[in-house]
Design brief:
Order of helices and strands: EHEEEEHHHHHHEHHHEEEEH
Number of domains: 2
Shape: globular
InterPro entries: Beta-lactam/transpept-like, Glutaminase
Oligomer: single chain
Catalytic activity: L-glutamine + H2O = L-glutamate + NH4(+)
Low-confidence stretches: none
CATH superfamily of the largest domain: DD-peptidase/beta-lactamase superfamily
Distance between the termini: 32 Å
Mean pLDDT: 96
Helix content: 40-55%
Subunit structure: Homotetramer.
CATH architecture of the largest domain: 3-Layer(aba) Sandwich
EC number: 3.5.1.2
Family: Belongs to the glutaminase family.
Strand order of the largest sheet: 1-4-3-9-8-7
Bound molecules: 6-diazenyl-5-OXO-L-norleucine
Length: 309
């Protein structure tokens, strides 16, 4: 798909890239540590097929936590909100994405929202299909449809690297298994979750997925409703309240659009009814969000009055 390089966007990227030096590439998943901290790209995709970009928008990143919005949509389609929200809550935590702290404070045990790791692990557990392989065979085509690219696949090296080192996520899972929120073999769930997080997309494809959410679940090319409107809106609401973890409040004030970050350095943005944004900038701030990516969104939001508030 052709995407027009736009000079104003190039200027913003150049300026935002100067902030990358204040961030750090994630390395708690060892294979992510190989990323180039200076990379920064952005694609913006509009409903009529128009696309503008700056930087290397073909370069691949893994979805990481951005996948949590997609699995949430799938599970809500599978089971409906009433069942899903028996197992996971709707409230922001103000804690880091991998925090275990608040899990012990709710009785019965229930992760506060589906965007933190504890909540996302429950959501992945709830994907219908039985075995990890069967569930993954439902999830991957869903991502391919959202991104409109049947070739999207998993970065096996990053999936394996996370699988081998996910001690904290295993701890969250065992806590939740003890409390009967998760009822499956934890290694099986970790296998599925780490493959989910290692699905690889480019900024262009990320912007395409963001656009579907911006359009309340409608595929911009076919006009088909690929996510029911109420579910797409619910996912976008979580992006606003919890999408940037314990930086979501500041992000809402300074930028004001639904967005979801991942530790690979991706940010997916959905400007309601207008366009989808895909950003890749692997240097992260101390909350695990792309430091240059957020700067870039700040500049764009100010310049184009993107805030929905
Ligand atoms: O579970 C993890 O820790 C990673 N696979 C995903 C975390 C993540 O992307 C947090 N985002 N900023």
């Amino acid at each position: 798909m052709a995407c027009r390089s736009k000079s104003e966007l190039n200027e913003f990227v150049k300026e935002a890239r100067t902030y990358a030096k204040y961030g750090k590439v994630a390395d708690y998943i060892p294979a992510l540590g190989k990323a180039n901290a200076n990379d920064l790209s952005i694609a913006i995709r509009y409903p009529d097929g128009e696309c503008i970009s700056a930087g290397d928008v073909e370069k691949k990143m893994t979805l990481q936590s951005i996948s949590k919005v997609i699995t949430l949509a799938l599970v809500l389609m599978d089971r409906g909100p009433e069942e899903v929200f028996k197992y996971v809550g709707m409230e922001p935590t103000g804690d880091p994405f991998n925090s275990i702290a608040k899990l012990e404070e709710t009785t019965p045990a229930k992760p506060l929202n589906p965007m933190i790791n504890a909540g996302a692990l429950v959501v992945t557990h709830l994907i219908k299909g039985g075995s990890a392989d069967n569930r993954f065979e439902r999830l991957l085509p869903f991502v391919q449809t959202l991104a409109n690219n049947p070739a999207i696949s998993v970065n096996e090296e990053i999936a394996r690297s996370e699988f081998e080192t996910s001690n904290l996520n295993r701890a969250l899972c065992y806590f939740l298994k003890h409390h009967r929120v998760i009822n499956e073999d934890i290694e099986e769930l970790m296998d599925l979750y780490t493959r989910q997080c290692a699905i690889e997309v480019s900024s262009l494809e990320l912007a395409r997925i963001g656009l579907v959410f911006a359009l309340d679940g409608v595929d911009p090319e076919s006009g088909k409703q690929i996510i029911p409107e109420d579910i797409a809106r619910l996912c976008k609401t979580f992006m606003v309240t919890c999408g940037m973890y314990n930086a979501s409040g500041e992000f809402a004030i300074k930028i004001g659009i639904p967005a979801k970050s991942g530790v690979s350095g991706g940010i997916m943005g959905s400007v309601p009814e207008k366009f989808g944004i895909g950003i890749f900038g692997p240097a992260l701030d101390d909350k695990g969000n792309s430091i240059a990516g957020i700067k870039l969104l700040e500049m764009l939001s100010e310049r184009y009055h993107l805030s929905m508030f």
